[in-house]
Amino acid sequence: MAIHTFGANAVDWEQRVDLPRLREERLARLAAKLAESSLGALLSFDFGNIRYMTATHIGTWGMDKLVRFALLPRGGKPVVWDFGSAARHHQLYNPWLDHTDGPPTPDGARATGARAGISTLRGALHPDAGMARQVAAQVAEVLREHGLAGEPLGVDVAEIPVLAALRAEGIEVADGQQVFLEARRIKTADEIALLTHACSMVDAAYQQLYEFLRPGVRENECVGVVSKVLYDLGSEYVEGVNAISGERCSPHPHVYSDRLIRPGDPAFFDILHSYNGYRTCYYRTFAVGSASRAQRDAYIRCRDYMDQAIAMVKPGVTTGDIVSLWPRAEEFGFPDEMAAFALQYGHGVGLSIWEKPIFSRLVSLDHPEPLEEGMVFALETYWPASDGWSAARIEEEVVVTADGGEVITKFPAEELLVAGRKYWTAGGELNTLRESQSNLNTAAGRGGTLHPGDTPDPVGPNPPADAGRGETR
Questions:
Q1: Distance separating alpha carbons of residues 338 and 132, to the nearest angstrom
Q2: What is the pLDDT of residue 262?
Q3: Residue 377, SS3?
Q4: pLDDT > 80? residue 153
Q5: What's the CA angle centered on 50, arms 47 and 51, to 5 degrees?
Q6: Rounded to an integer, what distance in angstroms lies between the CA atom of residue 275 and that of residue 149?
Q7: Which of 40, 52, 100, 229 fits as disulfide partner to 205, beta carbons 3.0 to 4.6 Å?
Q8: 10 Å Cβ neighbour count for 454?
């Protein structure tokens, strides 16, 4: 194994994640990509990009407010304008920011790499207060200090009034998001260590979820179980827990509900959280109490698509090569790739989801991207069952190494797991491979009861070509 998992604490007796190195290497990568571009500076309002540039963080409550911003001038050091007292906190506790550079302030001190400043709070501040103009003026001042006033300014995301104010300052605004994403495409050794640790926390969450799952619990209760495990282990932010069960599995709604889980239900989950800023995207599918033949066969198909993709991962292979292994949208019930988007899918994972590279038949066949050593991405596969209501969903996170791909999501997913306490009958344990419609498990419905060890026939009028192979997995 090339990728190690460490404890979360700092110790003197073992080299673990090197946070100063992490900060330095991220900024160096971003500065290099900026130097290669036609831009004079990068202006960010996106929390992930700000953190990558400045290694500052003020919590997740402000992520959707576009309230704080940071600027990286070509050849210069980053400046972050932050919410209220957060700027003062950065001055005290973030020595990697330059706290000596900058123009004089009204009190005679020197401006620093962390300054007080806010945007418009997505328009909540009165437009006549002029906050957009103030943002533009602050940015323009730094650009002039570095002789970059006439150079294009790359911006990732911004409010319309801010863009208008920047143009009113005579600043040419361009797309800066691609520069950020190119810098973040390849992960450093410390980023990979943090991503791996984040996955290990989800491993633990799935263990608790597997033990908790049973008929009578609700999807939202499962979300609570997962969230508690993650926060207890030190998660910074549980971005989402996608909990889907029963007939909600097909089509996939991408949001949990308060549905009661029932015997024989499929249930799949996606766990997204942040550890020191680094995210996970990590699906697993369970059957609750028992699994039908249709569910089992859908899982086999879903797993096969996953295994084929992982086996192909290595430097030089393209995203187009990977998605060519996956089925067309029409093969699993959708009219086109837009309608099926994100079901057979892949995406980079880092300080946010989604990052580069993207894997989808919607774009990757025509615009393939080569895989490179140091990329970390999640691959997701989905297959609807022939019963018309259940489905399987699997996701693995993969690190591209020099000679292949290493999977860092470790909770077992090679076969369909059945969660919940075993049931016992007068004749012994109830087989976990059974139909949820009870009459189909009787002599009248199936020509005989399915006993432990029996091999069922494929279900449905058009079973998958690989149906019945679950016994050999």
A1: 36
A2: 97
A3: strand
A4: yes
A5: 85
A6: 38
A7: 229
A8: 10
Domain 19-184 and domain 187-419 have a common topology: no
Give me the helices (H) in 186-239, please.
189-212, 219-232
Tokens of residue 73, six digits:
């001038």
Query: Buried b / exposed e across 392-423, counting CB within 10 Å, b at 16+?
Result: bbbbbbbbbbeeebbbbbbbebeebbbbbeee
CA torsion sign, 99 to 102 to 108 to 114?
negative
CB atoms within 10 A of CB 215: 14
Domain ranges of the chain: 19-184, 187-419
What element of type H or E holds 137? helix 131-145
pLDDT for 100-147, tens place per residue?
A: 655 555 444 456 899 999 999 999 999 999 999 999 999 999 999 999
Bridge partners for 137 per DSSP: none
- When pLDDT is averaged across residues 229-236 and rounded to a whole number, the result is 97
Structural domain 19-184, CATH architecture: 3-Layer(aba) Sandwich (3.40)
Q: Which of 227, 230, 229 is nearest to 243 (CA)?
A: 227
**Residue 21: phi, psi to the nearest 5?**
-65, -40
Exposed, middle or buried by CB within 10 Å (0-12, 13-18, 19+), for 81? buried
CA dist., res. 326 & res. 444, Å (int)? 39
Condensed to tens digits (0 to 9), the pLDDT of residues 75-104 reads: 999 999 999 899 999 999 999 998 765 555
Crossing angle of helices 19-36 and 47-54, in 10° steps, is: 110
Q: Quick one: CA dihedral 155, 157, 162, 164, positive or negative?
A: positive
Cα distances from 216 to residues 245, 259, 436, in angstroms, run 12, 9, 15
Sign, CA torsion 220/223/228/229: positive
Residue 9 is encoded by which pair of tokens?
Answer: 């604490």
Neighbouring C-alpha atoms within 13 Å toward the C-beta of 354: 14
For β-strands 391-401 and 376-384, DSSP reports them as antiparallel
Dist CA 91 CA 84 (whole Å): 12
Whether the CB-CB separation of 117 and 102 falls below 8 Å is answered with no
- Options 3.30.70.270, 3.40.50.11540, 3.90.230.10, 3.30.460.80; CATH for 187-419 is 3.90.230.10
Question: Tell me, what amino acid is at 113?
Answer: G
Q: pLDDT tens digits, residue range 31-54?
A: 999 999 999 999 999 999 999 999
Cβ proximity of 313 and 404 under 8 Å: yes
Cα-trace Rg, the chain: 26
Cα separation, 349 vs 328, in Å, equals: 24
DSSP assignment letter at 471: G
For the CA atoms of 352, 273, 251, 417, what is the dihedral angle to 10 degrees? Answer: 130
E strand or H helix at 165, and its extent?
helix 160-168
